[in-house]
């Protein structure tokens, strides 16, 4: 971990277990076996960032599932009953402790890709961390997101208000009800119209990744001079969608129409089109001969092939 010059900083990225849930394929990918269900991970990641004073800043991206399902709102518990079996241990805190870190003392920042139940985890474990979420997230927690994602499935008290900041709206004309906003500015980078250079040194970019849920963000992290990792959250729920082998599934919305797992399917597909070029090696989206490893949160084959890269291992 570290840098080779004043203007090049690299971070260390380690996967974290965030529990597992069971998904019916027909709700997520086209041409699915209507009976097939797969138990998949909800991946989280530890990012360790070096600074000039030799202090390491530790950032966790996503928190996976809660280890106590009774802590979810009743309406959400009813939904989770359809996602069984679930595997709740090890969770993020277990994984960090197993590598020698105390989640309550050693984690400085938590960024959530979004606040669906299988990514929100147990924020109370991270009692020293500053939480950062995408614009509109606190309004979503308090009010829901329409009929697909009603208020009843969210917990308005999920995040510690005194330690939670929202990224500013991407649109200059948009407003947010958040009490605290970060001072970051959105700028184009790597083919994405809106990114935040989180540490200000080109090592970690927060990528606005709209379509799945309000406030959904991804991370692009530089781990070596020509190597990057793209953490895609729920930009899609199956890596075959990224490669074009499958498409986003549409299914009956219960009101005579069709829906997908995304709050706005068309916008989600536009986000996927921007991620697609990163799969090429070298990627045309980044200058130089750069390679990008793209990892989505529910990629079961990735987890099975990369257990050695879970903390204290690294990518």
TrEMBL record:
InterPro entries from the UniProt entry: MBL_superfamily_lactonases (IPR051013), RibonucZ/Hydroxyglut_hydro (IPR036866)
Listed name of the protein: Metallo-beta-lactamase domain-containing protein
Family according to the record: Belongs to the metallo-beta-lactamase superfamily.
Superkingdom assignment: Eukaryota
Signal peptide: none
Record keywords, A-Z: Hydrolase, Metal-binding, Zinc
Record's keyword annotation contains Zinc: yes
Highest classification ranks of the organism: Eukaryota, Fungi, Dikarya, Ascomycota, Pezizomycotina
Cofactor(s) it depends on: Zn(2+)
């Amino acid at each position: 971990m570290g840098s080779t010059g004043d203007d090049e900083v690299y971070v260390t990225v380690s996967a974290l277990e965030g529990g597992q849930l069971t998904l019916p394929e027909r709700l997520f990918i086209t041409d699915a076996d209507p009976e097939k269900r797969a138990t998949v991970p909800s991946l989280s990641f530890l990012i360790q960032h070096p600074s000039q004073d030799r202090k390491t800043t530790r950032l966790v991206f996503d928190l996976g599932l809660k280890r106590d399902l009774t802590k979810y709102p009743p309406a959400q518990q009813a939904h989770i009953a359809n996602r069984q079996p679930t595997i709740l241990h090890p969770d993020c805190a277990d994984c960090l402790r197993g590598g020698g870190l105390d989640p309550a003392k050693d984690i400085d920042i938590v960024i959530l890709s979004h606040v669906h139940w299988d990514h929100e985890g147990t924020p109370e474990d991270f009692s020293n961390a500053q939480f950062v979420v995408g614009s509109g997230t606190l309004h979503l927690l308090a009010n829901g997101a329409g009929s697909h994602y009603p208020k009843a499935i969210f917990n308005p008290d999920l995040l510690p208000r005194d330690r939670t900041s929202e990224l500013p709206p991407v649109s200059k004309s948009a407003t947010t009800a958040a009490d605290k906003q970060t001072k970051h500015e959105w700028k184009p980078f790597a083919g994405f119209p809106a990114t935040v250079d989180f540490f200000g040194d080109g090592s970690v970019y927060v990528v606005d990744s709209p379509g799945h849920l309000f406030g959904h963000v991804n991370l692009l992290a530089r781990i070596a001079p020509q190597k990057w990792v793209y953490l895609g959250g729920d930009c899609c729920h199956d890596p075959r969608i990224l490669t074009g082998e499958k498409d986003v599934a549409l299914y009956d919305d219960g009101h005579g129409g069709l829906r997908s797992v995304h709050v706005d399917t068309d916008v989600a597909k536009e986000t996927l089109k921007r991620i697609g070029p990163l799969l090429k090696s070298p990627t045309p989206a980044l200058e130089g001969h750069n390679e990008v490893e793209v990892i989505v949160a529910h990629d079961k084959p990735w987890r099975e092939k990369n257990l050695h890269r879970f903390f204290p291992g690294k990518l």
